[in-house]
Amino acid sequence: EPEVTQTPSHQVTQMGQEVILRCVPISNHLYFYWYRQILGQKVEFLVSFYNNEISEKSEIFDDQFSVERPDGSNFTLKIRSTKLEDSAMYFCASSVDRGSQYGYTFGSGTRLTVV
Amino acid sequence: DQQVKQNSPSLSVQEGRISILNCDYTNSMFDYFLWYKKYPAEGPTFLISISSIKDKNEDGRFTVFLNKSAKHLSLHIVPSQPGDSAVYFCAARGAGGTSYGKLTFGQGTILTVHP
Fold it and tell me: In the prediction, which pLDDT does B99 show?
């Protein structure tokens, strides 16, 4: 069964450093998403991406965040200057379309720890 | 902004009995409601969904009921099995505009099925 692959599974970084979280969505999917879950809290929407541009972003997704699909297979989330409160599990997801009754396929996540 | 709420943080049931997980929502601009299952160190996995125009959808041991007037949905698992032990997330999908396709998650319910 096709999978969404995320690397690394765990990233530890110093506050103020830049991090790039990587995702390989399912190959025929067209819509891409990043969600995050702070420990003990809800899974929260960050950003959706389609046709090489951001479709929607949440208030969490400020100027410190950016997304890119540099080569047609990878989908990356960059945090320019990490803060302690960015520590969370980050999930990438993809879907064939936005109207599928099956929702998205999520990756296993990257646990980001900012120290 | 608690648009999707799961008020029970945990549920414990005996193997073979019925598990009922509940979810409430406050916004009517959703076109689908989805249930995801999540194991530790994995991403959410799609389980079952229901269109906002239906009141029931069944898939094997899993049935989702939607009560639109009460803005309430529930997931029934019968019979429950120990392998069903996981965190269950209710999610609502935006019906249109820039929120089309965006998932809003509840807080999750930890289901434990005892042998």
Answer: 78
